[in-house]
Amino acid sequence: MRVLIVHGSQFGTTERLPREMGDAIAALHQVDVVSAHEAQDLTATGVHLLVVGAPTQFKGHRLLVRGFLKHLERQGFAGCAAAAFDTRAHGDRGETGSAAESIALLLSGAGCNLLVPAESFLVEGMRGPLDAGEPERARTWITGLVRSVHPVLVTA
Question: How far apart are CA 24 and CA 105, in angstroms?
Answer without folding.
Answer: 26
